[in-house]
Amino acid sequence: MLSGKESPAAPVPVGMASPKHKKFEVLLQGLLDDLYRYAYWKCRDREQAEELVQETYLRAWKAIASLRDAGAAKSWLFTIFRREYARQFERKRVEMQDVEDIGELPNANATYDTSTEAFVLRRALATLSDDYREPLVLQVLGGFSCDEIAEVLEISTSAVMTRLFRARKQMREWLSEDESKSQKLNGART
């Protein structure tokens, strides 16, 4: 790990980039969108997600020399994020606000899927415990392999596979129950 004396440098002129700059840019710049999506899913708050992604990239910059396997860059970065996310709760103070003071909520994402199917899937996903939901989201949204998820969550690959299997099973059960409830309701209306 690098000493705390180094700070992110000002932009480096073309052709003058240090090996550290090149390594960071090649390995991590392409992961920004994936990390932000995951951060937004975890935080459910745009500003908080942006702040955590910035802090994650700062920590990654300071520790880039410790990354030995370029193929593990994505899981390494997501692990840094998860630790930073956990640190946030160690120092977080809950802010209270009166319900009357809350105005209309801003549109979190202009491309947010508002279809019925997406709503039903989000509801089903919300019924899962965090132990099952997080590996599923990492696989589906993040495109991680089971080995990468195991590294990010710091559990065994077999535990990841078990959690993914159970998550999908619970989702199928919940969705089939929801579908049968809908059919019964529609049958009662006719």
Q: Give a count of the beta strands, DSSP E runs of length 2 or more.
A: 0
Shape: elongated
Question: How confident is the prediction overall: mean pLDDT?
Answer: 78
Task: State the end-to-end distance.
Answer: 68 Å
Structural class: mainly alpha
Main β-sheet description: none
Order of helices and strands: HHHHHHHH
- When the domains are counted, the total is 2
Instruction: Indicate the radius of gyration in whole angstroms.
Output: 21 Å
Number of helices: 8
CATH superfamily of the largest domain: Winged helix-like DNA-binding domain superfamily/Winged helix DNA-binding domain
- Proportion of beta-strand residues: under 5%
Can you tell me the residue ranges where pLDDT is under 50 for at least 5 consecutive residues? 1-13, 105-110
- What is CATH's topology name of the largest domain? Arc Repressor Mutant, subunit A
Helix content: 55-70%
Q: Which CATH class of the largest domain applies here?
A: Mainly Alpha
Task: Give your account of this protein's structure.
With 190 residues, the chain is mostly helical. It folds into 2 domains: 18-91, RNA polymerase sigma factor, region 2, helix turn helix motif (Rna Polymerase Sigma Factor, Chain: A), CATH 1.10.1740; 113-190, Orthogonal Bundle (Arc Repressor Mutant, subunit A). Helices cover 65% and strands 0% of the residues. The protein contains 8 helices and no strands. The protein has helices at 19-28, 32-43, 46-63, 73-91, 116-127, 130-140, 146-153, 157-189. α3 packs across α4 (73-91), α4 (73-91) packs parallel to α7 and α6 (130-140) packs across α8. The longest helix is centred in the C-terminal third of the chain and has 33 residues, at 157-189. The model is unreliable at 1-13 and 105-110 (pLDDT under 50).
